């Protein structure tokens, strides 16, 4: 009997290994749920059913023959459609990329999960070329939030957030340049990990901003998140941004608790006075982690500005040829941003990279006295789909560039973050960022696990 | 410096020609809005108290090891 759509990845793999469920049963149950819910959620853009069933049957055959299977045996996963999937054009949320030749192999992180016998169910919706925080996409249709389908899933890894929250897969992969893992994690009420910049290889994924692109996993609990992360670590010389560190597994320390950790609330730029739902989430997380002090994060506003300019300039140059010849084939919501980015003076970009370096030094100084920072993931719960502006500290501003105002300063300097859903009584989910110094993914995941064990962090099951 | 007298309209017209970009009337309003937003970000960057006469950039080049 299949363990159910909301079973954790480890329970699914255990059921498959012990033959209390077959991988084929698990995959079929998920494919049925995708058939039923995807017309409403629009989380998947490609369902690779034949491939998934063939892989599941092969895993079952190995189990039946007494041969070894991987730690994610039969666990259904799916990936943002900027990851290469063999046989599909890597669309990256665009119409233009559909004209590309099909990928000749899977992206490297996809391969690493497949090597653990996780089963790939398909590609997931996203904002065009990842320039998005809303989950809206004019080509593939908007991705909906399973907790209220009139509301945004968040972006740009919209399908990853929606699919995991709705039980359409147990684990998803996404990318995060300015918040695209952390925003959907918050809006959909799930766990996400944006590792340190340079930790996980980006080989076999479609780029957005080389200076800032990160890849990472989503799950419905901290242990699954840690497991997927550990399986994807390791060097890859094909990604020039990789630090090529050895595997530093976090699974064994996940339950170590938070004893001895110096935890503080991020203030200043991250102040939640004007955002009552975010304030509740931060207060709950702070209570659970024993954080009393609020510390300023020096340079955060400038860091956010640096991320904005670097993103705008790098991504626009990357797409310049397409902007010259076929601008109207872009989603209008990204097109005008890219066109503006193409015109940014070189001096603004140089200054952004200078400020980024200076800002990193300020934050590293802060980490001499603090091990972990708590900040909101989003200023509010998911806005309604189609809402073009949001209120930020008394000012009506465009939603698309501003939903990530709390995430952008953190990814700007590549810090590891666990995005954690907090049960704080809001109608729709909301989450916090647990932030540590570079390479300390172990700390952010330990803290996430601790909040989960205290009943504070929780992935709510949608009624859909 | 980001330029206190930044004029998004003039900048757009000059840069579009330089880059060979055609910006249609339908696109123009949005592009101007985002150029103005980028300029505000550039002003924030200018104001950051980075020590004078330093030029350390985040995106430095690291040569590979010999034989790599």
Architecture overview:
The complex is a heterodimer of chains A (464) and B (68). Chain A has 464 residues and is an alpha/beta fold. Chain A has helices at residues 9-17, 23-41, 49-64, 108-115, 158-165, 182-188, 222-232, 276-289, 300-318, 320-326, 332-342, 346-366, 399-402, 408-411, 441-453; strands at 44-47, 76-80, 119-124, 144-145, 148-152, 171-176, 191-194, 214-219, 263-266, 294-295, 372-376, 389-392, 395-398, 417-421, 431-435. Helices cover 37% and strands 14% of the residues of chain A. The model of chain A has no long low-confidence stretch (mean pLDDT 97). By secondary structure, chain B is mostly helical. Chain B is built from 2 helices and no strands. The radius of gyration of chain B is 18 Å and the shape is flat. The chains are: A alpha/beta (464), B mainly alpha (68). The interface between A and B is large, with 43 and 37 residues.
Structural class of chain A: alpha/beta
Q: Helix- and strand-based class of chain B?
A: mainly alpha
- Alpha carbon gap, first and last residue of chain B: 40 Å
Low-confidence stretches of chain A: none
Segments of chain B where pLDDT lies below 50 for 5+ residues? none
Main sheet: strands, sense, barrel of chain A = 11 strands, mixed
Describe the structure in brief.
The complex is a heterodimer of chains A (464) and B (68). By secondary structure, chain A is an alpha/beta fold. Chain A has helices at residues 9-17, 23-41, 49-64, 108-115, 158-165, 182-188, 222-232, 276-289, 300-318, 320-326, 332-342, 346-366, 399-402, 408-411, 441-453, and strands spanning 44-47, 76-80, 119-124, 144-145, 148-152, 171-176, 191-194, 214-219, 263-266, 294-295, 372-376, 389-392, 395-398, 417-421, 431-435.
Mind sketching the topology for me?
The complex is a heterodimer of chains A (464) and B (68).
Chain A: H1 9-17, H2 23-41, E1 44-47, H3 49-64, E2 76-80, H4 108-115, E3 119-124, E4 144-145, E5 148-152, H5 158-165, E6 171-176, H6 182-188, E7 191-194, E8 214-219, H7 222-232, E9 263-266, H8 276-289, E10 294-295, H9 300-318, H10 320-326, H11 332-342, H12 346-366, E11 372-376, E12 389-392, E13 395-398, H13 399-402, H14 408-411, E14 417-421, E15 431-435, H15 441-453
Parallel strand pairs in A: 2-3, 2-6, 9-10, 9-11
Antiparallel strand pairs in A: 1-3, 4-5, 6-8, 7-8, 7-14, 11-15, 12-13, 14-15
Helix pairs in contact in A: 2-3, 5-6, 7-15, 9-11, 9-12
Chain B: H1 8-19, H2 25-47
